[in-house]
Amino acid sequence: MDASERNFSKKEVNRSGHFLASNSIDSTDELTLEKHLEIFNYWRGIHSYVMNIIYMNLKRRIYNNPELKDIRNAIIAQRLKRTPSILSKLNRFEKMQLSRMQDIAGVRIIVKKISDIYKIRDNINKKFPHKICSEKNYVNNPKPDGYRCLHIIFEIKGITKQKYNGLNVELQIRTELQHQWATAVEIIGLYKNTSYKSGLGDEETREFLCICSNLFARAENTPIDKRYHGKTEDELCLMLKKLNERLNILDYLRGLIVAVNRQDQISRKRNSKTCLILLKLDEKVLSLKNFTNEEDTQIAYTELEKEITKEKKNWDVVLISVNDMKKLKNAYPNYYLDSRRFVQTVQSFIDRVSNHSKP
Q: Is residue 138 within 8 Å of residue 151, measured between CB atoms?
């Protein structure tokens, strides 16, 4: 029987999550590993169905609702959380249980400006078929690392198959500037093999990224971190310039180029529903493959993750759906190692103080 058709208890799910997060693959026999991977992939896999329910609802309301007609150019995408990210989160938070993790399924909306975030939020609050569990406003209350976004957690209700009821889906709504910043954090983390978005990594790089975030926030008239209260914009730009001279981050990002495997290049097929993205970090090669069948998609995704885990390959794989396949690169530029917009924006801040210093 296919794992997606089985029902594992939450106790089994939590046990497998804990096992995979706390045990070395090398010291685990193959049968035990396969058993826990089956349960883990079952739990993540059933989130795909509920994630698509939220995705389609949001897509319809943005494109069909007269109240939101001025933001129909928004990018809407969905993705299941990657295995390394799930296991890392289980390790970071001692009391976290896999069955209670709320962001395994994620939908992302990227908009032009701050007011668009709240238009969507207010529209959702008026009437939504599934329970809104919580809202976290990281726009007005950014995380210490500089992360800014609006998060809404949904709980699925009223589905015929009971295994889907009670599952959570996380919605992230962010502006293009906030998306530029988050993309750069992901790319730097990928290549330094450090999760800067989890507060890890060297202090100077984290400071550089945090100053960037606060300058972006000033540009969008949103609150800045209290650490920088009393600092003028030019003072922040000068701090950024000096850090970049020491760390050479912008040149580092400019130098990252990925080759897209043309044979696997995704077409713009209208019947394409999902895309499997495989980034081979050591080779800097990106492969893309379309799927129209959910079962084939999950099988391919699971097999690739198993191969990466068992053979410790320096690859990164993610399964994504986006409202317009032509916008895939805009929705997930980190997999293309594309931080050009971020680099241009940050360079403009540095140039401002560089020009001031010229005689």
A: yes
